[in-house]
Structure to design on (895 residues):
């Protein structure tokens, strides 16, 4: 076996066509990894700048106010999801979904849906990251490398002779294909390994990523092998293989996406906003009791401090109706979140039918750039907003005297890692 | 000429006998038909939904009761962007950008709830539209049909016979080209239908015709590339492999490469980033809610002089309204300067992306197609600008009502009990300052002008590709 592999390796070294595809794979992998690293570095730099500016702005905002209500009104807090150490390989949803917000203690639904995303063209066209290379381009390169193994020998009229003289079919075609698959896998993975090392991605993660790439190449090898058995001319084989690629990479994902989205409708996001806004605005015209009663239901601990005079303006009442806005929108928000999760779950299932989708999704999972990670980030913003309320309410409702030193203990957002 | 027809007819006869060709053509046809029907239905539904939402938002605004005018500033309004008629073919960036914005005083919000936010994630190609079928799949079909159309004659030895009969290489190539153009023409039909349908929805015939012409040129470029490969290369598999490589490069690799390149070359700050930079500057302007802020001292002096009054209480107008109006204008100038800068940087990223059309006709047609359909980034930016204008106008209209229609003394006592609150209100008629907002695509002329560079790049591609075919065909020897 070793002998036949070294023999095939020598053949490969002289096959200029094959060398071209392999060199191309290597080059593209270098390009994809470098672009990915450049992008995540830029995102990290952005986050570092934001953290600094945000702290300066908050310090300034807090300095000018002498009561809890104004402090909470004027102080914004940065929340963000930093790119993971493996994000360079799969930027995933980070271009089309927001991974940074500035929130304050007002109704959260009016803030969390702000979409501070990149240039819309980026989200539309997509990036040339390693996940895309491995999921969609690598199979095509493998097809171009392998489709005419048999057919080209047929064309040269050596096929039958080779088959007759080789000991077994396995010892002839297997090493030949294996050398090519292995070379392609290695050349694709080398830049990824280097990138993972530079970015400090863990060994286990790199191993999983490598397994995904190799697994996908093996599946495509199997497909090519099965189609290659058809006794047809190389061009018909290549046409059929490209057809299979098209079906698996484009048609099946498109049909799955359309049917998943039709089966799981999401509530109109605008309705969430509208409901929250209307509730908050109506509260201004309602008797203050109407706001405070449902608030005390949720926060019985402030029952003794929820008496608001109908005269004048009180921050307690203001924040209570901000929360009422969030509470009114809660069912819709839950529906929206549940529908997104359901769609993602169905997409995970559907991606089993399409190796390219599966590879892309698995990479996004590894890199924390998939839908679940984006939803987890939103959940962490919600949790943090809750912490802000938990910080201010016990000071604001019992009307504790304003103490600037207590503000030192303001909860700080820390991204989950 | 009749010779060309005969060659083309012969090519068609062969195609119709080939199961691979028939199968591939059928699949592409079914995909185009199905995607078109789905997209037309979806986009038309969204169109009417958003138009309804827009007028519903206006009616709700007008129906608000008598109130303090500043309450209405914070009550706010919504701007919706209905898809233009040609979006049934090319939805463009609409799926990625949100399509509604909440408009309120002192803030510029982002467009929220893009479709992609809740989309099922199945990788890069799952969002099929008629436009990207034409951009990605049609070239592949032409490759499958045409990669061997010329070299077949060489392989089977008929080329020598044809040339010996006095047929020139150019005539033969012209016949083959005619056969391919006929295929392209047939597959253009769905696009022609959709374009005609968009005209019935109110699209300008010029824009619809330009988009059809653009795609025709694009497909002819691919036809020419395919024909050139089949003349220049001598083995089917090599020709097919080379063409698939060109397709892989032009349709899959270069567009995404171009995105990464323009993102790395031009750093456009996000909104939060530029907001924070702006906030530092904004702090110098003063807070519009607080009329005693030192930043307003100068303004107070001017207004008092203008009305020949000693104190703000003596003014015939409401000083708090003056402050609100003044600071809204100042703030808006500042917000707009940052927003403009952000949009200009994004636009230059997109211009750089478009330049990559020189390396890939797929980029050239896709940006021409988005621009002509009115679903490009520039149109989204115009929506943001117009929504901002709408926001500024109604906020200032309300501030004017605050100045003219609400007494200052009543205003500062507004929190002293129910009756005082009731008194500090203006008549709901004042809400009529809100303008009706119906976002529409640019005129066909403007869109065409914006698409000119991409269309020229396409024409350049066509000239070069056909040039190669003609040169190659002239040199055909057995």
């Amino acid at each position: 076996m070793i002998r036949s592999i070294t023999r095939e390796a020598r053949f490969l070294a002289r096959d200029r066509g094959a060398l071209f595809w392999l060199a191309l794979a290597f080059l593209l992998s270098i390009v994809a990894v470098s672009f990915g690293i450049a992008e995540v570095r830029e995102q990290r730099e952005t986050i570092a700048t934001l953290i600094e500016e945000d702290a300066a702005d908050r310090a300034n905002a807090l300095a000018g106010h002498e009561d809890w209500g104004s402090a909470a009104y004027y102080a914004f807090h940065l929340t963000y999801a930093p790119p993971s150490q493996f994000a360079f390989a799969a930027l995933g949803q980070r271009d089309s979904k927001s991974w940074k917000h500035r929130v304050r203690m007002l109704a959260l639904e009016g803030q969390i849906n702000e979409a501070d995303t990149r240039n819309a063209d980026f989200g539309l066209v997509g990036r040339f990251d390693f996940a895309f290379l491995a999921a969609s381009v690598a199979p095509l390169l493998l097809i171009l490398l392998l489709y005419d193994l048999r057919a080209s020998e047929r064309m040269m009229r050596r096929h039958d002779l080779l088959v007759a003289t080789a000991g077994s079919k396995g010892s002839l075609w297997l090493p030949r294909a294996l050398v090519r698959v292995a070379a392609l896998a290695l050349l694709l993975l080398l830049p990824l390994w280097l990138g993972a090392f530079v970015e400090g991605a863990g060994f286990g993660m790199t191993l999983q990523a490598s397994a995904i790439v190799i697994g996908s190449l093996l599946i495509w090898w199997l497909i090519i092998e099965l189609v290659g058995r058809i006794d047809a001319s190389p061009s018909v084989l290549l046409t059929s293989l490209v057809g299979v690629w098209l079906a698996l990479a484009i048609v099946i994902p498109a049909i799955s996406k359309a049917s998943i989205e039709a089966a799981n409708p999401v509530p109109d996001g605008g309705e969430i906003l509208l409901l929250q806004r209307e509730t908050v605005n109506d509260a201004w015209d309602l008797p203050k009791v109407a706001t405070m009663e449902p608030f005390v239901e949720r926060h019985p601990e402030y029952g003794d401090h929820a008496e608001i005079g109908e005269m004048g303006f009180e921050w307690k009442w203001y924040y209570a109706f901000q929360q009422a806005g969030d509470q009114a929108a809660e069912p819709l928000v839950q529906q929206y979140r549940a529908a997104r999760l359901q769609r993602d779950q169905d997409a995970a299932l559907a991606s089993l039918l399409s190796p390219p989708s599966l590879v892309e999704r698995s990479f996004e999972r590894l890199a924390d750039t998939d839908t679940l990670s984006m939803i987890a980030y939103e959940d962490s913003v919600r949790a943090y907003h809750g912490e802000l309320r938990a910080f201010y309410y016990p000071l604001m409702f019992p009307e504790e005297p304003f103490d600037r030193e207590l503000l030192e203990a303001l909860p700080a957002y820390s991204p989950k890692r | 000429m009749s010779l060309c027809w005969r060659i083309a007819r012969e090519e068609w006869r062969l195609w119709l006998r080939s199961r691979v060709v028939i199968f591939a053509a059928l699949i592409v046809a079914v995909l185009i038909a199905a995607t078109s029907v789905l997209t037309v239905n979806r986009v038309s539904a969204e169109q009417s939904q958003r138009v309804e939402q827009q007028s519903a938002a206006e009616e709700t605004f007008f129906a608000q009761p008598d109130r303090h005018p500043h309450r209405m500033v914070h009550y706010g309004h919504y701007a919706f962007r209905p898809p233009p008629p040609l979006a049934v073919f090319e939805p463009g960036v609409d799926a990625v950008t949100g399509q509604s914005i909440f408009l309120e005083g002192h803030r510029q919000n982002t467009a929220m709830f893009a479709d992609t936010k809740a989309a099922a994630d199945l990788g890069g190609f799952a969002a099929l539209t008629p436009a990207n079928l034409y951009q990605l799949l049609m070239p592949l079909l032409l490759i499958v049909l045409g990669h061997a159309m010329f070299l077949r004659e060489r392989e089977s030895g008929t080329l020598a016979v044809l040339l010996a009969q006095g047929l020139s290489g150019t005539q033969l190539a012209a016949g083959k080209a005619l056969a391919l153009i006929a295929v392209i023409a047939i597959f253009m039909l769905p696009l022609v239908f959709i374009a005609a349908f968009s005209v019935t929805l109110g699209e300008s015939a010029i824009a619809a015709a330009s988009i059809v012409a653009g795609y025709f040129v694009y497909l002819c470029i691919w036809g020419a590339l395919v024909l050139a490969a089949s003349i220049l290369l001598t083995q089917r598999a090599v020709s097919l492999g080379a063409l698939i490589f060109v397709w892989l490069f032009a349709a899959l690799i270069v567009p995404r490469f171009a995105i990464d390149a323009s993102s790395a070359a031009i750093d456009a700050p996000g909104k939060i980033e530029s907001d924070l930079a702006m906030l530092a500057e904004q702090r110098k302007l003063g807070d519009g809610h607080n009329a005693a802020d030192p930043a307003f001292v100068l303004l107070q002096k001017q207004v008092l002089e203008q009305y020949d009054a000693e104190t703000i209480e003596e003014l015939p107008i409401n000083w708090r309204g003056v402050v609100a109006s003044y600071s809204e204008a100042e703030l808006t100038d500042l917000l707009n300067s940052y927003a403009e800068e952000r949009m200009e940087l994004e636009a230059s990223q997109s211009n750089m992306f478009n330049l990559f059309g020189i390396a890939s006709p797929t980029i050239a047609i896709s940006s021409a197609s988005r621009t002509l359909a009115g679903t490009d980034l520039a149109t989204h930016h115009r929506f943001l600008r117009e929504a901002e204008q709408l926001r500024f106008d109604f906020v200032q209209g309300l501030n004017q009502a605050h100045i003219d229609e609400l007494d200052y003394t009543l205003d500062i006592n507004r929190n002293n009990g129910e009756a005082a609150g009731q008194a500090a209100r203006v008549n709901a008629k004042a809400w009529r300052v809100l303008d009706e907002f119906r976002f529409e695509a640019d005129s066909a002329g403007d869109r065409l002008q914006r698409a000119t560079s991409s269309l020229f790049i396409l024409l350049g591609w066509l000239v070069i590709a056909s040039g190669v075919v003609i040169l190659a065909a002239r040199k055909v020897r057995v």
Observations:
- The CA atoms of residues 6 and 175 of chain B lie 7 Å apart.
